[in-house]
Amino acid sequence: MATAAAAKGGEKPALRKPVFVKVDQLKPVTNGHTLTVKVVSANPVPARGRSGGSGPAVGSRPARIAECLVGDETGVIVFTARNEQVDMLKPGNTAILRNARIDMFKGSMRLAVDKWGRVEVTDPASFTVKEDNNLSLVEYELVNVHE
C-alpha cells in the first residue's frame, strides 16, 4: 500500500481536499459529508431519566442533546447536536460540518457528527438559508424487493 510505504519512509500521505456538498444533495443512510451550514434554530432535548439498569454509569453526566435546524441556500435539515456541539451551534452561527452522516429517525433524515467527525464554527457565510425546502420533513420507507 502506498500509505504504509509513505508512513515507513517518514513522509506523510497527501491529504485529500474536502468536497463540500449542499444540503439538497444529502441522501438517506450516507456518511462522510462535509458541508457549510447556518444555524436557523436550536432546541434542547430534555434528558430522559431511566429507572432500569441499562442507563449510564453511576456518577456520569447525561448527554446533552439539541435538535438544530441548519441549512444553506438549497435547503434545511435537522442536525442532532451532542454535548460540546450544543454550545457551538447557536442560532445565527455558521459552521463547517466534517465527516457528517445521515441517520434515519422515525422515517426522516437527521444530520449528525460523531466522534470521527468535526464541528467548526467559522466566519458568517454570505448565503441566505432556504427554509422552505426541509429535507427532514420528507418521510422515507424501507421497501424490500423480492424477485
| Helix coverage percent | under 10%
CATH class of the domain at 23-45 and 63-137: Mainly Beta
Helix count, DSSP H or I runs of 4 or more residues = 2
- The name CATH uses for the topology of the domain at 23-45 and 63-137 is OB fold (Dihydrolipoamide Acetyltransferase, E2P)
| Low-pLDDT segments | none
Strands across the major sheet, in which order? 1-2-3-5-4
Chain oligomer state: single chain
Terminal-residue CA separation: 40 Å
Average pLDDT, to the nearest integer? 82
Looking at CATH, the homologous superfamily of the domain at 23-45 and 63-137 is Nucleic acid-binding proteins
How much is the radius of gyration in Å? 18 Å
Say how many strands there are: 6
The main sheet comes to: 5 strands, mixed, barrel
The ordered H/E elements are: HEEEHEEE
What is the CATH-assigned architecture of the domain at 23-45 and 63-137? Beta Barrel
Counting helices, strands and paired strands, the structural category is mainly beta
